[in-house]
Amino acid sequence: MKISIITVTLNSVDSIYDCMMSVKQSNANIEHIVIDGKSSDGTIDVLHLFEGESVKVISESDDGIYDALNKGLSYATGDIIGVLHSDDVFFSDQSLTDVASIFSDSPMLDVLYGNAIIFNSFNQNKVSRFYSGSWFSPWKLRFGFMPPHTATFVRREVFERLGFYEPKFISASDFEFFVRIFRNGKVSYKYEDKVFVKMRSGGMSDSGLKSYIRTSREMLIALKDNKVYSNLFLLLMRLPIKFFMALYTKFKFRGSIDG
User: Fold this and answer.
1) For residue 188, how many C-alpha atoms fall within 13 Å in the half-sphere facing its CB?
2) CATH number (domain holding residue 13)
3) Residue 52 DSSP code
4) Deepest of 12, 41, 42, 227, by most Cβ within 10 A of its Cβ?
5) Rounded CA gap, 185 and 154, in Å?
6) Contacts of 233 (CB under 8 A, 6+ apart)
7) 258 within a domain of the structure (yes/no)
8) Within a domain: 259
């Protein structure tokens, strides 16, 4: 069971080493494809330290993160495909081994998703939010809920059958992909109650009210394109729910992964 991990980078010198190491340390059969948008801050120098038989680095201009992810998908040869952003790391060196084992035990499984931890930018052990895949069900897409993108793993055949990411979106193409496969794609899926990924706070989907409203408008277009009814009010309802989820995180972890 071969897993292709796709990472998109642009001037990520402060975090890319940890990202690459978290993939390298896995005992699973891994192909790591890194699509770099011509970084100028030393990111490429770090990537060259890892480049080899199982790590492919492509550095060239692109039209945004989803265009870069689609490039990575075009190079992927693994049975299973996952995405790890350059600011993020896998939870442990067993995470991808667990993913491979679950797919091996379930030959008909198309999509596996679990949990992610959002950590403080300066301290990987300081939890700011717990992103649980258990909150997701396909009917909740109309409210803007989806599984944690980087804690979701998809068989390559799903991309081949249903298409790659829609590059017309700035920040909601991953959401549109989930709408497409869960509502219209007839895929089999499973939630696993495991933390697969630690995500650094401050990403594109965590950038303030203006970004939140823009993403919500894109989500509405994605739902309409896939003939799923919703409206802006329903999508904006997820904001107070996220607030209570953050409170739950503080109660569950008391500020640290160790408990």
Assistant:
1) 8
2) 3.90.550.10
3) B
4) 12
5) 13
6) none
7) no
8) no
